[in-house]
Specification:
By secondary structure, the protein is α+β, with helices and mostly antiparallel strands. It folds into 2 domains: 134 residues, NE0471 N-terminal domain-like, CATH 3.30.2020.30; 263 residues, Double-stranded beta-helix, CATH 3.60.130.10. The longest helix is centred in the C-terminal third of the chain and has 19 residues. The chain binds N-trimethyllysine, 2-oxoglutaric acid (AKG) and fe (ii) ion. 2-oxoglutaric acid binds next to strand 23.
Length: 414
């Protein structure tokens, strides 16, 4: 029996935590204390250590802390499955707790605690919810793009009626939006009110200093270059908020004149190139905190906003990007790092900018009345070409949590 289980254990690659140490050698040292679930196929093996339980299930080696195991107990007295909320008072758990007994069958881990309480875990559940399991998964599946990838994907626009009236239309739209960070709705009546109806179908509108639904022409009514006819280089908006707006909706209601095309660039595609070419620069961009700032004193508008955070924001456990802040217009004085770091940061920023400016990464579209564009402002940069004539643009920002909420309720991974 032991021979067979050891043979099985030898098939696994070396432990990710100790790359130099073959798994087999660790097992030989620890062999007398390994247990495994008896029936074939042998999918699970475990052993108790001084302060944690080591569990191998399917392809995952998990190290589970005893307090964690007590804290996540899903028994009726510890967890209320109706509201999906914990009833257990975590602060009442002895930090030196250790299970009195451990047993594993084909699908379940059973732990008996010193006070007799029994905790059961589905092995499948642990595989998905442990740190080691999470680390292997992405939170947000995406397709990174340059202009060619995006064009070749032939991502369809969704028709306004299908978007408003059917779950399939909405789901298709949101799936495109989650994968590419941009999505279009067609045949929208060219008014601010109709644009608002679209926005409300997927989220709550995020009211900001620019209003709820904003509407602008090149009338200099606000102290920002957006309210001119000038070209705007690629950027993300509201970098000067502690939480930049998650989504931006654009709907061009009128343009009598030339130019004014919209530029879109996938910031995560560019960042992925930086990671490949210069991982230390990617790391710097994800670690150095920066300020962005908006100071306005025009007419009755008086605002002073400051947002702090790095250019690239990643989940620390899997290094997955979730937010890029990139706005060279609104970047504030750098006073958060010493001079030598500043210089390396400028070099890293240059590498990223070079990627963002590659013509092959630029997607140019002309927004027309009837075609609304949704942009993931945490991922995709936008800009515009200079223009002549009269141009009216309306839109709004959306709260990100609520867009993702809608997507999850439709069964999408968001
Ligand atoms: C869309 N709307 C015209 C309302 C906003 C303009 C905000 C522009 C600002 N520089 C930023 O990038 O955040
Ligand atoms: O005028 C445009 O097309 C976009 C301007 C802009 O960057 C913005 O409104 O956030
Ligand atoms: Fe903008």
């Amino acid at each position: 029996m032991w021979g067979r289980s050891l043979a099985w254990l030898f098939q696994f690659p070396s432990s990710p935590r100790c790359p130099g140490l073959p798994w087999g050698r660790r097992i030989l040292l620890a062999a007398p204390r390994w247990h495994h679930s008896a029936p074939e196929p042998l999918k699970c093996a475990w052993q108790l250590h001084g302060d944690h339980l080591e569990l191998r299930y399917a392809e995952t080696l998990m190290r589970l802390d005893f307090v964690w195991l007590r804290d996540h107990c899903r028994s009726a007295s510890c967890y209320n499955t109706k509201p999906h909320q914990r009833s257990l008072d975590t602060a009442s758990v002895d930090l030196d707790i250790r299970p009195k007994a451990v047993r594993v069958d084909e699908a379940t881990l059973f732990l008996t605690w010193p006070d007799g309480h029994v905790t059961r875990y589905g092995l499948e559940w642990l595989g998905r919810n442990s740190y080691e399991g999470q680390k292997q998964q992405v939170m947000h599946p995406r397709i990174l793009w340059n202009a060619e990838i995006y064009h070749q994907a032939r991502v369809p626009s969704v028709d306004c009626r299908s978007f408003l009236e059917t779950d399939e239309g909405l789901k298709e739209f949101l799936q495109n939006f989650l994968l590419y960070g941009i999505a279009f709705v067609e045949n929208v009546a060219p008014t601010k009110e109709d644009t608002e109806i679209l926005a409300k179908r997927i989220s709550l509108i995020r009211e900001t200093i620019y209003g709820r639904m904003w509407y602008f022409t090149s009338d200099f009514s606000r102290g920002d270059t957006a309210y001119t006819k000038l070209a705007l280089d690629r950027h993300t908006d509201t970098t000067y908020f502690q939480e930049p707006c998650g989504i931006q909706v654009f709907h061009c209601l009128k343009h009598e004149g030339t130019g004014g095309r919209t530029l879109l660039v996938d910031g995560f595609y560019a960042a992925a190139q930086v990671l490949q070419q210069a991982p230390e620069q990617f790391e710097l961009l994800s670690k150095v905190p920066l300020k962005h700032e908006y100071v306005e004193n025009v007419g009755d508008c008086h605002n002073h906003m400051i947002g702090v955070g790095p250019v690239l924001n990643v989940y620390p456990w899997n290094n997955e990007l979730y937010l890029i802040r990139y706005n060279n217009y609104d970047r504030a004085v750098i006073n958060t790092v010493p001079y030598d770091v500043v210089h390396r940061w400028y070099a890293a920023h240059r590498t990223l900018t070079t990627e963002l400016r590659r013509p092959e990464n630029e997607l140019w579209v002309k927004l027309k009345p009837g075609k609304a564009l949704f942009v993931d402002n945490w991922r995709v940069l936008h800009g515009r070409e200079a223009f002549t004539g009269y141009r009216q643009l309306c839109g709004c920002y959306l709260t990100r949590d609520d867009v993702l909420n809608t997507a999850r309720l439709l069964g999408l991974q968001a």
